[in-house]
Write a structure and sequence with these properties.
- Keywords: Transferase.
- One of its GO terms (molecular function) is glutathione transferase activity.
- It comes from Gordonia oryzae.
- This is Glutathione S-transferase family protein.
- Pfam families: GST_C_2 (PF13410), GST_N_2 (PF13409).
- Helix 1 links the parallel strand 2 and strand 3.
- Helix 1 runs parallel beside helix 3 and helix 4 runs antiparallel to helix 6.
- About 45% of the residues are buried.
- The protein is mainly alpha-helical.
- The chain has 9 helices and 6 strands.
- Helices cover about 30% and strands about 5% of the residues.
- The protein has a 4-stranded mixed β-sheet with strand order 3-2-5-6. Strands 1-4 form a two-stranded antiparallel sheet.
- It folds into 2 domains: about 160 residues, Glutaredoxin (3-Layer(aba) Sandwich); about 180 residues, Glutathione S-transferase Yfyf (Class Pi), Chain A, domain 2.
């Protein structure tokens, strides 16, 4: 069985003509017939810490976050980096929304080369540290600029370390996304959200049998119903401010109607037919750091073009209508404030603004 991640590039069977920047051009394969989808969660566990115990100490300007706006796991890092004000400390490289079986690539940059790392493929940074790296090339990844080596792609730990290890570089007014007195509850909530929702939509979309799909579908909507009950009486998942838990749920909800409902067959109801979750998602979307890091055009391009074994034509749908993301949510009536005693982040840096045509129509 081939164990894969949609945001991982993995060699596909057969041969293909060479694509741009030396990539294979071959499409990856995401569904194993007759089997359920099992995500490979063995990531590079090296950490960047204040004490540098893994050989990579916190140091402003030394590291580059490589992400893709299309990817929900990478979108988490974009949100947290912005909420905490780490833009000056950790630079950002963005891959394009599509990739082949070989690697994510820097399609958005002039010449298709990252301007800081000088590489056309993210795989080059993986191979620089681990020659012949045998696993998938995933985003997000953090690269050590002086050596050009990947440091980590352990996405659940990256955002936690942004919150706990990089505090000397947080902006004034940065929120407490992983406060000590709530960590046990956040961890418990995150575990259920990850297994049943974040990964649950993929278990539906990449199911290789009717039975595995049926079970994944039931688990997904059971958890969404439970989350609706929880959020009916509280504004945020844990406590009365935004935490890491909200970041993790949001990136799946933001993609639900645009991709998961149709492409992944998660079609019991759309998000906008689930009143509590829909209001919760809009509340976060309209909070600085969340909606302004969301690129709906790249999201749809990624899923519908890359997953050719699910969508062989590569046609990207025109819908859904996204204008309702900006409608009133009334979640403030439940109490709580997004940033607690802190403040919202300033507007995105000009170079990091999502193009208006990729966002929500305002008229």
């Amino acid at each position: 069985m081939v164990v894969m991640d949609t945001d991982t590039t993995t060699a596909a069977a057969g041969s293909a003509a060479t694509g741009p920047q030396g990539t294979s051009g071959a499409q990856g394969s995401y569904v194993t017939g007759g089997q359920e989808f099992v995500r490979d969660t063995k990531y590079i566990e090296t950490r960047i810490t204040r004490d540098g115990r893994d050989g990579y100490p916190v140091e402003a300007g030394r590291y580059r976050l490589i992400a893709a706006r299309a990817c929900p796991w990478a979108n988490r890092t974009l949100i947290v980096r912005r909420l905490l004000g780490l833009e000056d400390a950790i630079s950002l490289g963005l891959c394009g929304p599509t990739h082949d079986a070989d690697s994510w690539t820097f399609d958005l940059d002039p010449g298709g080369v990252d301007p800081v790392l000088g590489i056309p493929r993210l795989k080059d940074a993986y191979d620089q540290r681990f020659p012949g790296y045998p696993k998938g090339i995933t985003v997000p990844a953090i690269v050590d600029i002086p050596t050009g080596e990947v440091v980590t792609n352990d996405f659940p730990q990256i955002t936690i370390d942004f919150a706990l290890e990089w505090t000397d570089h947080h902006r004034d007014g940065a929120p407490q996304l992983y406060p000590e007195h709530l960590r046990d509850e956040i961890d418990a909530v995150n575990k259920g959200v990850y297994t049943e929702v974040n990964n649950g939509v993929y278990r539906c979309g990449f199911a290789g049998s009717q039975d595995s799909y049926d079970k994944a579908y039931a688990r997904l909507f059971t958890k969404l119903d439970e989350l609706s009950e929880r959020l009916a009486t509280q504004r945020y998942l844990v406590g009365d401010t935004i935490t890491e838990a909200d970041v993790r749920l949001f990136t799946t909800l933001a993609r639900f109607d645009a991709v998961y409902h149709g492409h992944f067959k998660c079609n019991r109801t759309t998000l906008d037919e689930m009143p509590v979750l829909w209001a919760y998602a809009r509340d976060l979307f309209q909070t600085p750091g969340f909606g302004d890091t969301t690129d709906f055009t790249q999201i749809k391009q990624h899923y519908y073009i890359v997953h050719r074994d699910i969508n062989p034509t590569g046609i990207v749908p025109q819908g859904p209508d996204l204008r309702n993301w900006l409608t009133p949510h009334h979640r403030e009536e439940l109490g709580g404030t997004p940033f607690g005693d802190g403040t919202p982040p300033p507007p995105p840096r000009p170079a990091e603004v999502v193009p208006a045509e990729h966002w929500v129509p305002t008229s």
